Amino acid sequence: MTSVEENENYMVKQAQNVRKTDPSSAKAWILTAKTLYPNAFNVQYEAYLLERDGKNFEEAAKCFSVIATNFTNQHAELWQEVNALTNALRNENESTPEQEFYVKMYKHLTPEVQHNIFVHMINNSGDNLQQCIHSYILMFNRFPNTASWQAPRLLEMLAEGMKADPDMYQRMLVEEVLPMIQNKPPELSPLLACRLYTNSLEYYLRQIMDDEKCDTTEAWKNIFKVLMLCGQMMGWEPFLPFSKQINQNVYWDKLVKILRGSPAGSSQVLFYATTLFIYSLHGYIRKLRIEDADVSHVLVEGFIDWSPSESDEVQRMDCQPDGGDVQSMEPPKFSATTAISQELSEAFLHAARCWQLLNTEQFQRDFSQLMLALPLAPWISRFLFDLAIYFGHRDEANKLMADMNTPSTLVQSLQILSLNLMQGSMTYQGFQCVLKILAELPATSGQLLDNISLKSHRHMIFLPLTKIALIQYCTRAIVSRLSRMLFEPNCSDRLLGDLLALLQLSADKDVLLKQHIFQLITQRKSFNLHTLSNYIIATDIIEELAFIWNSQLDDANFELTGSPTSGGGAGSSTVAGSAQPRRIGTRGADKGARDEFKSLIRQQIARCNENIPALVANFITQEHLTLAQHIFGMAPPVETIVIK
């Protein structure tokens, strides 16, 4: 150590000894040392510490400027202060009293020194990626103009950091960095810009999917902002900003316009179409569950109205093989069954259009990679299953169902039933699904749906998972199958009666089918209606049966089965061997029989205000063996209980 260094150290030591007890003496020692040794780091640093400890932020700023300007990074003490300063700036809104001093001191530094602090921090961060990124962010906040030429390096570092900790670096990208560069976006390589957009999209999608309190409108607004920003970086034609007031057809028309002016496989079209697809997909999945209500919807096959000329169609449908797709030149329509059906169908069709575009040869590979990088698996599996149902690809839908995680056995049974109906003829598996659905009916009552059955063309419906809607769908599935058997020459009395019991659910519908059944009844010399007292209470059917009973000729016999006591209902039962139901016939009927018939009719009409959906569901459940015999020709076992 030279004599000069010894003298420097001596003066500094003297100042340190009295710094806390006699600040004035300490300052005198340092002023003397600064005069004699102005280029000595330890002298200048001690002068800074003296002002820092005295909370003199203006003088401390002057001293710090001298050190930062004249001394480089070989002094560890300097970098400790720089670290303390930058940490204080990073926590400016929640700073401690000590950090408040650094913030005030920083404001009195010259702009050049302020900027150099960040540059030095960045250049000396070494392998500390997080510290380097934070320094860049602080510098951009304090010196926005530096972002235009420094941002590419920062964005590359963020992309690198996402490999190790995607959550943290995605948050930094989306919440801190992108807002700073959106007004003057830098030029980036297409690969980096697309990568940053994908990571931003993943960040917002996780919020939408995982956070029930997420403002999805705000999230989508931000996604579109990032899309526009990345488009600017790559010189793309601007897309449309996000607005819930913009119809999705407008977005699609804009996409088609850009597509026509772009080369095959354009990244611009890929990312615009992918964003529009996910936006439509999210709307579809979200609308499947009605907002603020515990009611979900499931896309299922609709029914075709029965007609007297159905026999040829029956043969065609019944001859369709068990496997394969539904053959149709035109895609099916959507029936408006609930208030949200229109919105659901529009969101689904928009998503389907984008999906088909993105799965063309020019985009398929890149789009598949994007889908693997995004957390969309639960949405995609449900959408692809519904898409397969929509296009009638039954084999594909069966494969997708095997891979799909469906937590609800009710939904699964309904989807299997719909797939079963798609082939045109309900199988025993479909019938079992009906029984499972009726055994798991939800508590939400709901209401009967319109347009569940239409004329002459295939259609789809969004079925709400409510008690009445599910009963209606299951009932219609059985009616659709049983009504085809009306054209068979040996159609049984029991089949006609069971159809009448099922048709009570749609009092103002199925007029032609009911008329055909009554016509078949009147044409018969003998007819026995077993299900009257237990299950038939609809006034229109009761009145027609009464008319037939009263108009029977002497050579015909029309029998109705009545309860041994008045007041029998669908919820009561008698064990075999006890009092048996009484038959009331027209052949040889005396006054007593006619009075008994009138009493039976009055008894049934008195029950007309009962819950018909519950009655029909109970009928299917209790009489499922007989229904199975009708449909599949299965001989039912001996019954030990008579439901009345």
TrEMBL record:
Record-level GO cellular component terms: integrator complex
Principal localisation: nucleus
Region (Disordered): 564-591
GO BP: snRNA processing
InterPro entries found in the cross-reference section: Int_cplx_su10 (IPR026164)
Keyword annotations from UniProtKB, A to Z: Nucleus
Subcellular localization, as worded in the UniProt entry: Nucleus
Superkingdom classification of source: Eukaryota
Keyword Nucleus: yes
Family that this chain belongs to: Belongs to the Integrator subunit 10 family.
UniProt-recorded name of the protein: Integrator complex subunit 10
Source species: Drosophila rubida
